[in-house]
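protein under study:
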Amino acid sequence: MAKLIEVYVSPDGDDRASGSRSRPVKSLHRAVALMRAKRKALSSPRGGRVVLRAGVHRLTRPLVLDGRDSGVAPTRSGNIATDVGDPLVFAAAPGEHAVISGGRRVTGWRQTTVHDRRAWVASLPAVRAGKWDFHQLWVNGRRAPRTRLPERGVFRIEKPLEDPGHKNLHRHSAFRGHRRFRFAPGDLTSWRNLEDVEFVALHFWIESRLGFAKIDVKRRVAELTPRPRMSLTDNYTSTGAPYYVENVYEALRRPGQWYLDRPAGRLIYLPRDGESIDAVEAEAPRLETLVKVRGAAHVRFEGLTFSHSEYVVTDDDRSATPQAACHVTGAVVFDDAQHAVMDRCTVEHVGGYGVEIINGSIDCAVTRCRLRDLGAGGVKVFHTMTDAKDRWTGLRGKASAWRPCTRVVVADNEITDAGHRHRQAVGVLVGRCSGVQVVHNHIHQLDYSGVSIGWTWGYADGGAYGNIVEHNHIHHIGRGVLSDMGGVYLLGVAPGTRVRYNRIHDVESRGYGGWGIYPDEGSSDLLIEHNLVYRTKSSGLHQHYGCDNHVRHNVFAFGGEGQARIGRVDAGRVVCRFHHNLFLSDGDGRMWEDKTGWMQPEDGPAAHLVSDRNLYFDLRGKAVRFAGRSWTRWKRLGMDRHSLVADPGFRDPLKGDFTLKKNAAAFKVGFIPFDHDDVGPRGPIGAPG
């Protein structure tokens, strides 16, 4: 067997060295150049291994791998692989902690005083020259918050102001795009470096992150730049949206905060207790993407940590504020890649998504990784439009213009502590892509949906088929920040898509929404079964509109507004078929929610909903209600003819134990039990160290 091609790289190495174990090179770019040269000199194709020694490997520009860096595919006989192939592998040395960083260490701190508080200041000439800007900072391994007003909670827009001269007075109330608003007395003022102050509105299902053109303190009117596309209202009301502002010099008062004075090129930081100016480690990001695999195949990353990136927000981004932060890039990008894999890696302290898989990538995977402290979300698997203007939103264009990803695996990962900068980002985002498996992940502590599948509103071809969402543990999401969200969010016609064996709980929206499983506009041809959903602000399942969805053998418990809901129906379509599900409330008896009137008149439900052999119960003995109807009236409509009202027989549901006792009533309606704890990663995750 031929000797393995290896190149060693160390932060203490020398780029004039050979790249051997004893003489490693210093930079990853040099390591890749050496690997290319060594492989090119061979008479037959080979893979190789780039070994990263312990320490921080700093990048001054993204590391881009292309077709020259492809490994060797397995040999096949028909559909059977006869060997494992020979990939190009980037891996940490055994037992060592190697970090690939897009950050720059901030040094040269000096002691000063700001607002009568102890402060440190560092001069950054590149910032003053307009060559560097950043919105995140990590000090001693912890994310340091920018200044914020109010320090806790939110302000409230007193009144959005219409602009009669604006052409885009959209008929839809969500998209009126107010440029100006009136603020409450004392909330805003004409701060120092106003052009660097950020306005952040929390409304509908997105945040808007904009700048101020001017603030008229006397009239209490603020003007934003650029013009937002979304209305500055709180959901579908006339009430002004909640908001806050960031990066205000005058608000620099709490230890751990920082402020970047761009005109002066100064970074000011208020140290926490115990921090020393002589030993501080401050990292500011300078790269948007750390590593990009573009047009390469059979490339693997193993046991590495990726840190310190910054997504650069453009004026178009600010204006559009797309759903799920789909425009935001990743720290690691697989672009038109094949068989690219990240395994047992950590992505942390980044400004966008952790990993982005786009542009027709095939057979890629993110497995056994830990993704945390994220500016946006965890993993994005997204189609790409050939029309650059609609590259990220994908709202227009023919299906032939899509470049969908297929056969992608996102498995056994932890995704947590997300949405620090782009609060509408999700744990795993899948656009118009097919054959994507999102399985055995632990997704928690973020401000919007846990998993989002599909990207087509209505019944048109959605380009998202056969996706699987199974065995995930999704909890403590939403956190009262945004509305119109869910543990698993689905969008569009999706034949072959399955949502099964997931445990979803503690879903808290700010306003409307906050559902466990949320098939949104046009979501059709879904199989939703064997899911445990409980403690949601709204209901366990909300079908906005769609057809031919099968919902069976699920547990829906402790929904704040009921256990299930249908938002809208279309003539001649059966929305859902509910069979063998267990519905459980705790003191209000609400089973089916009906805020939209779809169940009117009295003969309405049976034409659009097939529901039978389910079980309903209230733990405190409250009479069960079905969209305001009694059990008797509900059955007279032809619903649940063979269903029961009885205690399902859970051991201790209020404490999260939904295992069934022997001879439980749940078995009488044909309910098939499943293992509620067989969720989340199956074994160790993340990079060593």
